[in-house]
Every structure is written in structure tokens, then in C-alpha cells.
Amino acid sequence: MLLFLIGAARAIIEMLGFSLLGLAAMTLLAGERRQENPIYRLFELITRAPRRLAGYLIPGRESPRLAGCLCFGLLFAVWILLAAWRLALT
């Protein structure tokens, strides 16, 4: 049961990480008109809570790009820790 929960948490983190990468790609590709793009808005909706949480860790909270990068780094670190924990259990 614990292995399943670890796997499910890793899948959710992967989805969030890929959504952050998609958000960054859409920011580069769509430019100023990105808010009109429904895919960009979907990625923004999916990643809003983790980016906001990462934004609280930044003093000043002025840069959404920095919050996105920090969020991706934190998600990646948690994903690696969960992989190590799952490996240790098997």
C-alpha cells in the first residue's frame, strides 16, 4: 500500500513538473498573447498552487519566473526523495 502511495505522489509531482515546463514553453512561444491561449491558461491553473507556495519562500516575491524555477526545483527534489524512499522499501 505504501509503495502505491509513493508511486501516486510521484505521478502527481511528474504531472506538475511537466505542466511547469509546458507553462515555460508556452511563455516563450506565445509571448504577449499567452493569456489568450487556452493551453497556457490550463497549465497556469494546474500550477497555480505550487507556484504560489514557492513564491512565499522568496523574500520580496517580485518575480513569478523565479517562483516558477524554485517550484520546479522543489518538485524535482521531492520527486528524487520519493524515488529513493521507494527504492529503499523494495
- Total number of β-strand segments? 0
Oligomer: single chain
Shape: globular
Q: Spans of 5+ residues with little confidence (pLDDT < 50)?
A: none
Termini separation: 12 Å
Level of helix content? over 70%
Number of helices: 3
The ordered H/E elements are: HHH
Report the portion of residues in β strands. Answer: under 5%
Structural class: mainly alpha
Largest sheet: none
Gyration radius, in Å: 15 Å
* Chain-averaged pLDDT: 91
Walk me through the topology.
Layout: H1 2-30, H2 38-55, H3 64-89
Helix pairs in contact: 1-2, 1-3, 2-3
Descriptive report:
This protein is mostly helical and 90 residues long. 81% of the residues lie in helices and 0% in strands.
List its traits.
90 residues, mainly alpha
Question: What's this entry about, in short?
Answer:
This protein has 90 residues and is an all-alpha fold. Helix content is 81%, strand content 0%. It starts with a helix and ends with a helix.
